[in-house]
Amino acid sequence: MIRRQNSKFLVAAALGLALPALADRVVRMAAGKGFAAFTGEPPPRNPATIGVSWGQAFVWTAVAGALGGVARMAARKALSRKLPTEH
């Protein structure tokens, strides 16, 4: 159970939630810029949109998902050594 009196633990828990999400967002934004530079078109935001091929939707989803997942995992791994543990 979370100790509500321990502000250091609460700050660490907030960082544990926010940092992986932020890392995911930053990496996906960078991947979107790379996708646009490589293909000359922005990444498909909605695969159901007319003009988005299956190939585009599949490649963008795979790339963005893989890079975002690695970014979240790396952020959690980096935080795991810094965060206090509850005993």
User: In this structure, how is the largest beta sheet organized?
Assistant: none
| Approximate helicity band | 55-70%
Mean pLDDT: 86
SS field, number of helical segments: 2
Radius of gyration: 18 Å
Proportion of residues in β-strands: under 5%
Would you mind describing this structure in some detail?
There is one protein chain. With 87 residues, the chain is mainly α. It is 69% helix and 0% strand. The protein has two helices and no strands. Helix 1 runs antiparallel to helix 2. The radius of gyration is 18 Å and the shape is elongated.
Entry summary:
This protein has 87 residues and is mainly α. 69% of the residues lie in helices and 0% in strands. The radius of gyration is 18 Å and the shape is elongated.
What descriptive keywords fit this protein?
about 0% strand; about 90 residues; mainly alpha
Q: What topology does this entry show?
A:
Layout: H1 7-39, H2 54-80
Helix pairs in contact: 1-2
